[in-house]
Design goal:
two-stranded antiparallel ribbon, Dehydroquinate synthase-like, alpha domain, single chain, 7-stranded mixed sheet, 2 domains, globular, 3-dehydroquinate synthase domain-containing protein, Rossmann fold
Length: 348
């Protein structure tokens, strides 16, 4: 399957439903220096398999990042540029980002801002990474905050499910992408997820391939809002003393749940939030709000982010956006306390 994806007058070609190997056979790289940027984990898993796809005479080099989803940071960018400085600057490069959401941003930013002549292909190895490839704004972070950004889409995005490792926590992280699509864009889509993925067994047994068309369509329309849904509430945890008790993916997950509940508290729309949480527990999502994080400290953390310009999408109802807002102290306190109360009710 091949389609042209357009976002704010930028375009990319997305290819999925076929293998990366089949794509390589039809492409010519003879005149270009192939430069692969990947995470250590994926280098260990796939480097030998990928190298075999290219001609022995092909100029090919690797740059290996940490496994962190925030590897699109200043330290990694500086190391990458220092590594590239040793190569012939007159060559034509093909930058190929292979890996997580940090790698796809780092690769795209390098292509957009470097003085080197290059094309940019992305090979995202998860749904989360694929979804980030569809956002036309790439960022470089410092201390988990964006400090550099650029507008661009890669020349090609290649999604090969045979190279993905979608199980366990990775499957939950990927499923959250579809949940965010439902929350922001379509209550019917969320209902479909609830029906088709009713428990952890069905979630782990069933492929997400049949939902890629819809996900891509939602991102083409509302990608920034979907991508950022939960982000402000996630960043609040980074400002607390015990925020490190939550993984980066757990911070994002709780951020989404709290932003949804905040929207419901403000706009009072009908939605069975408690049943929604029970479903997520059945799927295997960890929903606990750590006891070591004080509600007042967390709310203060969110408000710090608001003071720095942070905003959140307020839903009019599930699947429909109201506006972009600055949450206030009272609404935040009510939201977090109600969330903790709901968890107590579920646990009995």
């Amino acid at each position: 399957m091949e389609l042209v994806y357009t976002k704010n007058q930028l375009q990319t070609t997305i290819i999925y439903g076929e293998t990366f190997a089949s794509q390589i056979k039809s492409a010519s790289f003879e005149s270009r220096h192939l430069f692969l940027i990947t995470n250590q984990r994926y280098y260990d898993l796939f480097s030998e398999k990928l190298i075999q796809l290219f001609d022995d005479k092909q100029e090919l080099d690797w740059y290996i990042c940490k496994n962190d989803s925030h590897c699109n940071n200043m330290n990694e960018l500086e190391s990458l540029l220092a590594f590239l400085a040793d190569f012939d600057q007159q060559q034509k490069f093909l930058f190929l980002g292979v890996g997580n959401e940090g790698v796809v941003q780092l690769t795209s930013f390098l292509h957009k801002t470097s003085v080197l002549t290059s094309d940019c292909w992305l090979l995202p190895l998860s749904i989360q990474s694929l979804s980030r490839s569809l956002i036309d704004e790439v960022q470089i972070e410092l201390k988990n905050r964006p400090v550099l950004k650029s507008l661009m889409l890669a020349d090609k995005i290649l999604y090969d499910r045979t190279l993905t490792t979608d199980h366990g926590d990775g499957k939950l992280v990927d499923f959250l992408v579809f949940i965010r699509c439902g929350l922001v864009c379509s209550h019917d889509f969320l209902r479909m997820l609830f029906k088709n993925y009713s428990d952890a067994t069905r979630l782990n047994q069933q492929s997400f391939n049949g939902m890629l068309d819809e996900m891509i369509r939602y991102y083409e329309k509302d990608g920034h809002i979907i991508d950022q849904f939960g982000q402000l509430f996630e960043q609040g945890f980074l400002e607390t003393a015990n925020g490190h008790l939550l993984s980066s993916h757990m911070k994002r997950f709780l951020g989404c749940l709290l932003q949804l509940l905040w929207s419901q508290e403000v706009n009072q729309f009908p939605f069975h939030y408690k049943n929604f949480i029970i479903w997520l527990i059945r799927l295997g999502f960890p929903v606990a709000f750590p006891e070591q994080i004080l509600v007042s400290d967390y709310v203060e953390g969110v408000l710090k982010c608001v003071e720095r310009g942070g905003r959140a999408a307020l839903l009019k109802e599930v699947g429909e956006l109201d506006s972009i807002q600055k949450p206030n102290t009272e609404d935040l306190l009510v939201t977090v306390e109600k969330y903790k109360t709901i968890l107590k009710e579920i646990r009995g």
